[in-house]
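Good morning C.,

I know you're traveling, so I'll keep this short. The sequence:
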Amino acid sequence: MINSSLSYALPFKKPKKVWNSRFSWSDIPIYLCFIVFALITIYPFWYVLVGSFNTGSDYLKGGIFIWPREFTFANFEYVLLDLRLYKAFGVTIARTILTTSLSTIFTAMIAYSMSIHGTPGRKIAYWINIFTMFFGGGLIPYFLLLVNLGFYNSFFVYVIPGMYSVFNMLIFSNFFSGISKDYRESALIDGASEFTIIFRIYFPISKAVFATVALWTAVGCWNSYYDTMLYTSDANLWTLQYYLMTIVKQLNLPPEIMGGRTFGDEISAQTVSNAAIIISSVIILCFYPLISKTFKKGQMMGAIK
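The tokens, ready to paste straight into the viewer:
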């Protein structure tokens, strides 16, 4: 036996640092494929960003792929100097916040009732909802319905029709069905109402699926322009995407129709369109990382169910 007092005198060898014990040379092709895929995914956004900072006349010559050849802020100036942009921003932000909040809560409440097997008329209501996913009355009847309800040229045309989604209801319903029935039964024994069970038990433990559905709804509201084009004629109700589409079209009009605003060769329809895409994407790009972890968790839990 070696004396314990001598053991301290023995030379101590530090373990070699291993960069990754799971790494092997056979993984290199996989990493290369992921790197190529990441570049393919990121490059379109970079290409648009480069085009937004290039002069319009030079951009039309082509060959701009990595860096602006003639740098300019004129494309962003053309968009940002128009006061209608900020009004459209306000309408879009208000619509996104209000519609996302009401739609998520309202759809989740209906999904809760659909997930309870003892709900009267549950099967009939379920198949009626499924039917509406595949069949509809068409655009003209829907337009006439909105007009008769008084939603035409109203801000509520952005909110009320989007308060319920059958697809999101199915996602919520499947998630709620996976929650143990013991929670609800224990709460009912203690005298809790259904609203108390929904808001105090089910909703707090469903944050992941709430974040997922809310993100889908918010992105859909932010990128929407079709309903503005069909159901409004008031410029005060323009959404951001519809406004950006409008100013890009205006670039093809004569200067006198555009109110005398001219930028020479500094801008073009393509470069201004690129600048408009960047402006409309900034808020989504800033907002998404804040809930990315919860969003991924919600996707995983939905896939498991």
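Safe travels,
E.
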